């Protein structure tokens, strides 16, 4: 199960809506082994595309050095789908390289940049196997 | 000649869980062969058809090797190499 606080949830949704129709992407880092998504980090989609996302390689190195220095790891890796459901695509599955992370998918296909509900789902992706998990949204992480 | 190579989580199965290992080589290509000699199987995860895999990033002293010669990028004692899988996907 993914436990996420309301503010982080809202930040992911806001980013996805803002970048629609391009895919938005980012990470929520947390202390290694804690499974606590504490530090929301919006990334730029270097692909700038409605059908693909990729962190810029320089940004990626910077991010991982920062997490390394803080003893953090990516607890959530999120991205949006802007025309399809919030389910990992074959490409998403093939490129999922963080076995400990929750992969969050947001779909903005219904309301785009406008207010309104989004699909927000979370998965584990390990060795090509996708397992959807429940999401618990809490006011603050206890 | 020792070069520290930082290994991402997904490849630590090849390094007995170690986050960083020491390796040798005058070029990135030679370094990867040396890694393979001690951590069998890792090369295939980095190289495909004789070139670096598209979604694996390798940095030498913070420079993406794609901009400094790729597998031919030169290495010297004390350099630091970081391997990071791309964070990418698409619908």
From TrEMBL, chain A:
Domain of life of the native organism: Bacteria
Ranges annotated as spanning the membrane: none
CDD domains on file: MPN_like
Entry protein name: Peptidase
Keywords of this entry: Hydrolase, Metal-binding, Metalloprotease, Protease, Zinc
Residues covered by the MPN domain: 2-129
PROSITE patterns: MPN
Pfam annotation, one family: Prok-JAB
UniProt source species: Nocardioides luteus
SMART domains, per the entry: JAB_MPN (SM00232)
GO biological process terms on file: proteolysis
Gene Ontology MF term list: metalloexopeptidase activity; zinc ion binding
From TrEMBL, chain B:
Coiled-coil intervals, chain numbering: none
SUPFAM superfamilies: MoaD/ThiS
InterPro entries in the record: Beta-grasp_dom_sf, MoaD_arc-typ, Mopterin_synth/thiamin_S_b, Sulfur_Carrier/Prot_Modifier, ThiS/MoaD-like
Pfam families: ThiS
Superkingdom of the organism of origin: Bacteria
NCBIfam families in alphabetical order: moaD_arch
Protein name (record): Molybdopterin synthase sulfur carrier subunit
Organism annotation: Nocardioides luteus
Lineage, uppermost ranks: Bacteria, Bacillati, Actinomycetota, Actinomycetes, Propionibacteriales
């Amino acid at each position: 199960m993914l436990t996420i606080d309301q503010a982080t949830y809202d930040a992911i949704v806001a980013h996805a809506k803002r970048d629609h129709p391009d895919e938005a992407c980012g990470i929520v880092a947390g202390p290694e082994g804690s499974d606590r998504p504490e530090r929301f980090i919006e990334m730029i989609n270097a692909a700038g595309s409605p059908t693909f996302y990729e962190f810029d390689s320089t940004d990626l190195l910077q991010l991982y050095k920062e997490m390394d220095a803080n003893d953090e790891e990516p607890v959530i890796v999120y991205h949006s789908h802007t025309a399809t459901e919030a389910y990992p695509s074959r490409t998403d599955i093939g490129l999922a390289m963080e076995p400990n992370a929750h992969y969050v998918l947001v779909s903005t296909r219904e309301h785009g940049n406008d207010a309104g509900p989004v699909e927000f789902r979370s998965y584990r992706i390990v060795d090509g196997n996708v397992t959807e998990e429940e999401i618990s949204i809490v006011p603050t992480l206890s | 000649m020792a070069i520290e190579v930082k290994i991402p989580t997904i490849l630590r199965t090849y390094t007995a869980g170690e986050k960083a290992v020491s390796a040798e080589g005058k070029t990135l290509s030679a370094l990867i062969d040396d890694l393979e000699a001690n951590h069998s199987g890792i090369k295939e995860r980095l190289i495909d058809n004789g070139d670096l895999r598209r979604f694996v990033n390798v940095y030498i002293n913070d420079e993406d090797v794609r901009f400094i010669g790729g597998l031919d990028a030169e290495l010297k004692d004390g350099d630091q190499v970081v391997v990071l899988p791309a964070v990418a996907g698409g619908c």
